[in-house]
Every structure is written in structure tokens, then in C-alpha cells.
Amino acid sequence: MPDSNPSLTHVRTALFVDFDNIYLGLQREDPMAAEQFATDPTRWLLWLQDKLPHQEGDGRRRKILFRRCYLNPSQFGRFRPYFTRSAIEVVDCPPLTSGGKTSADIHMVMDILDTLSHPTRFDEFILLSGDADFTPVLLRLSKHDRRSAILAIGPASVAYKAACDLLIDQDTFLEEAIGATPSTTTRAAAGQPSNSAMSDLLTKIADKVYERASTSGELVATELPPIFREFSEFTSSNNWLGFNSLRNMTTAVVSMRRDLTMIDGDPWRVGLLAEGEEPVEAPEVGQEHGRMAPSPRFLTPADRHRLIEEILTHVRSVVESSDAAVPMARAAQMVISRFGEQVLATRWAGAGTFRDLLEGRENPGFAISALKPGYIYDPARHQLPIDGRPEELVGDPQLNALAYRVHQLTDTPYLTRGDYARVFRLTAEEVNQHGYFLTRTSKAVRDRCIEEGSPIARASVNFILRGITFGGHRFGQNGPEEPLELASCFFRNVVSLCDSAGIELDSGERETLGDWILGELRAEEGIPAEPSEAGDEAEAVPVGAHEPEP
What we know:
The protein is α/β, with parallel strands linked by helices. The chain has helices at 19-29, 31-39, 41-50, 73-76, 80-85, 104-116, 135-143, 158-163, 170-178, 196-213, 224-228, 246-254, 301-320, 328-339, 342-345, 354-359, 391-394, 397-410, 417-434, 438-451, 458-470, 483-500, 507-525, 533-536, and strands spanning 10-18, 61-71, 89-92, 124-128, 147-151, 166-167, 218-220, 260-263, 269-272, 326-327, 367-368, 375-377. It contains 24 helices and 12 strands. Residues 183-193, 277-289, 292-296 and 531-550 have low confidence and may be disordered.
């Protein structure tokens, strides 16, 4: 009889590796990562055991008690010793058809079901496979109150991802578990020589960034270029003051003040540090540490109360005199203009940020929205702007409805036509200049989109890059990359995703879909729409294919 009592010290885990699916998926996107996965399983095995969060949240450590890998010996037998040396049992799954189809999925399903009745009650099942055929077995595990985690390389069906308890992030697995990051980057790093004039300019910019960030406590990356352009020394021809990228320049700016810090995210941000709080690491840009920020001016309780009341009164008058909701950043600038440097010198009367000052008072006489970038308004007179969907799509109801339905059912990024064109154009430029390496390319394209004012998430860039490869393209193998060619490959894969998700597209809808993804690039090159393009091109790799072609 299985042991129904959970362990008090660890989470009992069973691991099942669909080697062919993971290896071929990685090989298509990043051959170096594929080799590291196949030849150093101990590294990612320890990461799964020690670093991957588990759902219990009770402090117990994961212990992988059952380890089994399924591979095609005729094609990948050379990797067997690496897995056996890591104490992973290897199950041979030779081809059974002339097309090379193996029975790995059937073996895995039978073993998973057998493991359900194992004398050791396993709490968690980890499947390394993007094969959507495993969806029913994940649902079976859920019915038996077992937790499941999956790793899918490339696109995976929405149903497959919904059936598991934890979807292992592919980028995190590549970078942390496999260590698939280039040892050096071809992109220039921040290396601006130290000089007095540059330091003074960076300090002035840092002060302005602090002033703007004090509104809500942080600034997203796309809010920084307009601030930089307020300084005449910053022009489009000086290559980010010689730092080569927005992020490098921002790192230099942040190093000028100890109360500013870089915050990783998607997109990354610049935030404020609380008084006495130290940054995680000090950037090295001409000096080891930025200058100390001035200590906040001391206020007596009476002075602090009076300043807060004066600020609130002024904000109420701003709201009352406005015909629309007032952006929080604009209101903050109006307060600074009205009350002078004492606002920043006292760190907003001790509140820390403008938003904290407003929210610290009950019934201030106006409402504060939670939407970014934040609005102050009178609910009786003002209507908040509609946030959440790109304006360009909202302007075309037919395109908007189809694009949002495709996004919901296939995870295709819900971007504007212009943003899609930007991603394809910057991807072509990046690969042509620096070659293709998935993790590096996706970061570089994401950062260059931010530099152009589009905060496109890295997850969206990754989805597009993988969609291009699933659409039949191989980066760097057929001469210089062309944006429209990349877009066409991605479009073919989106059509395939729609077919897999049960979205039946008629000719008009396919034309609309093509206009969404390809329209901007076609217009730039003066090419008319081609409704039949998706049907005439080579078929894309279907989602969740068990054994994609190498």
C-alpha cells in the first residue's frame, strides 16, 4: 500500500524527462544550450531540486527520488553516459515507424500512472516536455491531489499549461539551470571615462530623475529618454552620451545618487531607496560610489502638518479646475513649482513620495487611481482613461476583436502593428550585427524597444523569436535577416497556433490577422496585402509537437 503520510522534512518528487522533445527544441533555438542540457544534467538536476520553488510553501526541501529519462538511442545514444552518471535512469525508446516516431510518450504516461501507486507517495511530478499529449495525465495527477510542474521549450498549448500547477520559466531554466549565457557580449559596456564635465552632467540628470521618481517611487525605463532630452548635451547623435545604450547610460546616472537604484523587471525601472538603505550593488562608472543624497530637512510635527495641508489644498484646487483626470506626474510637478525645493528637501514632508503623501490622508477630497502612471480625479466629474489595450488596436474594432481572441487562446502577444514591426526590424538588426543567441538576443531586442519608447515585455520578444523558428526560419543560415521575412515566418506559426487552438479563420479573418502582424512592414515596403500567403507557405511546426525536426 502506498504511504499516504507526507514527509515532514522534504517534498517527494518524481522526474520524467522527454529528452528528444527538450533537446530538439533547444537545438532549434540555441544549439549551445542543447549541448549543455545533454552533457551536464547534474547541474540542472540540482537546480530543480534546490532552486525551483515548490507549491507547498511550508519550508520543506524538494528531494527528487525518482529520475527517469526517455530517449531515442539510435539518434541520441551518445548522451546516455551523462545521464547514468547523474543517477538518472535511461529508458530506450527506439523509432517504431519509418518516419522516426518513438514511443517515448506512451512509456512516460504508463510510468507516471504506475508511479501513482508506488509504495512511496510522491507529492510532486516534474515533466520536462512540451508535448501537449501529456495534458490528460496532468489532469489525472490533479485528481489524485498530486502537484505537477512542466518545462516546455518553445510554444506550448494553453490547455497543457493550464493543466499543470507550475510552469517552469524557460528563460530562467536556460540562464540559471543550464547556464546558457554567453561568456562575453559583443555589445559595448558602460565605459565612459571619468571627467568633471561628464560627472556634473550626470549629476544634474540624476537630480532630475530623482525629482520625477519621487512622484510615485519609481520610473519605468520608457519614461527616462524624455527626461534625458531635457538636457541640451543629450542629442540623438551622441549615442546615449557615449554609453551605447539606454540601460548603460541609466546605470551611470543612477550611480550619481545613493538614493536611486536600478530595479530589474520587464521593463526595468529606476526606483528610490529609503533613507539609510543601500543599493544591492554600486555601479562602477568613473567612481566607486555616487554622491550622498542630501539628508532630508528636519521638520517639526507642526511644520510637517502645515506643509502637508498646504500641498493637499493645492492639489484639490488643481483637480477642481481641471476638466479631466490629472496625471499624477503633472500634479507633482505643479506642487514642486508652487512650493519650491522644500518639497524634495523634506522628501515630501517625510512621506517619501508624492503618492505616499496623498494616500496617507483619509478623504483627501479627490480620488487616486491605481492605474499606471496614476491619475488624480473627481469621481463625480472625471472619467479615467481606458488603460490596458494598445490604442492602435482599439481604433479598429474588427482587428481588435480578432487579435484579442487570438491572444487569449494562443498567448500571441497583444501588440500594436507598429510594435510588431519594431520587434521584427530590431531583431533583424541585432542578429545581423551580433549573431543569434536566444537569451542575449531577446534581452537586446527588449532593451532596444524600450529605447524607442515601446515597453515590450521580454516574454513577448521570446514568444516572437520562438515563433519565428517554429515558422521554419533558421537564424544566420541564409544570409542577412530581413524583417518582413521574419514576420512572415512568425505569421505562419500564429496561423498554426490558431489551428491547434480550434480557431477557424476564414479568408477575411486570415487577411485581418496578416494585416495585424505584417501590415506595418508591408506598408513600409509598399507591398499590398496577400490574404493567401499563410496557406501557400510551408506549414509551421505545430504546437506541442513531440519530436520537432532538427
